[in-house]
Amino acid sequence: MAALGNPGNTIAVLKKYRFNFQKKYGQNFLINMGILEEIIEAAQITKDDFVLEIGPGIGTLTQVLCESAREVAAVEIDTSLIPILKETLSAYDNVEVINEDILKINLAEFVREKNGGKPIKVVANLPYYITTPIIMQLFESHAPIESITVMVQKEVAERMQQGPGNKEYGALSLAVQYYAQPEIVADVSPDSFIPQPKVGSSVIRLTRHEKPPVDVRSEKLLFQVIRASFNQRRKTLANGLNNFGAFSIGKEALQSCIEELGVPVNVRGEALSLEQFARLSNLIFDRQNIE
Ligand code: SAM
Asked: Percent of the chain having pLDDT more than 70?
């Protein structure tokens, strides 16, 4: 039975193995059974699901996942946790622990190999130092991922949901909203973890869109335009795009694309919606292909 949500059991395991927390791996282990249940419920895990867990730690969330899902693959970077996981997961025959850096895994190939290419769910209490690279990897791999339910820093969860005009709105908000529907499902205080993080946390569910909400001629160009616009937040959009250096058309042509969008020429990127970024990237795409 899943038992590590109980702080006493977690402390006993940590003592038995004389485990040293590695700050560089963002190790904050969950010790709140109620939150574990909320995560499983938010992710809508059933016995049909194949779940990828990123960073199982000592196996706290993994145990609960094994009890709810058909199959679980847990990718953990820290080799010293592998013998611990062997013990804490010994009661389950539907889990595979992979000692690897998640960022080094080819996810499309992984899903093909482990689940015959059928959609999987991702569930994790993420290491906060690489939240954005992991989320971007999950989306940009184009692996069949139905939903991502993750614990992240509260501020980052809020950023994923923001729209134009908000100071937290940025490239991460746009990337998340292009690929998925974000919904914060719980706020979690630091005392639900050992050791306690210095920041508040939230569980957020990202449900993958079947089709992106906007049509773009080139996804790569859309994300270049977005990155260029937020790279130099205090510059106008025209300057930001021009200084980025990735577009083959000059500043005047970039400016005329912005005008065609119907926004003031001195507008800043943070004022544009996803739809406007999509239109702008299509205008730049067309210009680049005539010139
Ligand atoms: N799931 C556990 C829990 O909820 O108690 C642990 C969560 S802890 C916040 C993050 C975990 O991710 C740690 O076990 C850490 O070692 C692991 N981790 C950090 N960087 C990683 C990476 N690049 N690839 C895979 N796992 C990683």
From this structure: 100
**How is residue 69 written in tokens?**
């899902």
Q: How many helices (H) and strands (E) does the chain have?
A: 12, 9
Ligand 1 center to 28 CA (angstroms)? 8
Handedness of CA 245, 248, 251, 253 (dihedral sign): negative
Low-confidence stretches of the chain (pLDDT beneath 50): none
SS3 166: coil
Report d(CA 74, CA 66) in Å as an integer. Answer: 10
Per the structure block, which two tokens stand in for 93?
């025959």
Residues with CB under 6 A from ligand 1: 25-30, 54-57, 60-61, 75-78, 81, 101-103, 125, 127, 130
> Quick one: CA dihedral 102, 48, 180, 152, positive or negative?
negative
**What one-letter code names the amino acid at 255?**
Q
Residue 158 near residue 127 (C-beta atoms within 8 A): no
- Closest ligand 1 atom, CA of 134? 23
C-alpha 255 to ligand 1 mean position (Å)? 45
Tens of pLDDT, residues 209-223: 999 999 999 999 999
User: Which residue among 39, 51, 54 is best mutated to probe the pocket of ligand 1, counting the most ligand atoms within 8 A of its Cβ?
Assistant: 54
pTM, two decimal places: 0.94
